[in-house]
Amino acid sequence: MPDPLVFMMGNFEAPIPTDRQYFESHLWAQPVGNLLRVGFTSYAVRLLQDVYFLDWQIDADTSVRRKQTIGEIESSKAVSTMYAPADGRIVRFNEALLNDPSLINADHHERGWLYEFETNTGLLSPEDYIKVLDAGWEQTQRVLKNQFNE
To answer: Residue-wise over 65-102: b if at least 16 C-beta within 10 A, else e?
Structure first.
């Protein structure tokens, strides 16, 4: 695998592998046959921090609309709703995560993938995803500072 691009989140590196594409919603997508294997980016995992519970609210082989609720994820930070990143069909879930969602923390680019997805939606290149991160980083820092100063 070629060297990843790196987005700096303050003092923390968020690697952006160049062998996959991205959704603006901080998910990566890697082709696996005719499907896309989808998982959280390093940026998302860093913001979530220690994931310890995952619950899907739809069944596998379900058509979804962009921003449709598909599940919940609980971490040391909060309980967050997960949304479909685009119109398409979630074909199957990574069953290993139901038994051990900590794979998201430990290996989110490989064994910690979330689901396999079919979509016709265009995706971002690694370089374009970095531009999305750059554009939103100042706002993200303000939100994080407010969370820690409560």
So the answer is: eeeeebbebbbeeeeeebbbbbebebbebbeebeeebe
What's the chain's length in residues?
150
Cα torsion at 131, 103, 117, 98 (round to 10°)?
-140
Is-contact 29 41, C-beta < 8 A? no
Per-residue DSSP letters for 108-145? Answer: TTTTT--EEEE-----B-HHHHHHHHHHHHHHHHHHHH
Instruction: Please list the ranges in the chain whose pLDDT falls under 50.
Output: 147-150
Query: Tokens 């998201």 label which residue?
Result: 104
CA distances from 60 to 70, 85, 95, 115, 119 (A): 10, 16, 11, 9, 15
Q: What pLDDT, on a 0 to 100 scale, did the predictor assign at position 144?
A: 52
What pLDDT, on a 0 to 100 scale, did the predictor assign at position 149?
42
141 forms beta bridges with: none
Whole-prediction pTM value?
Answer: 0.90
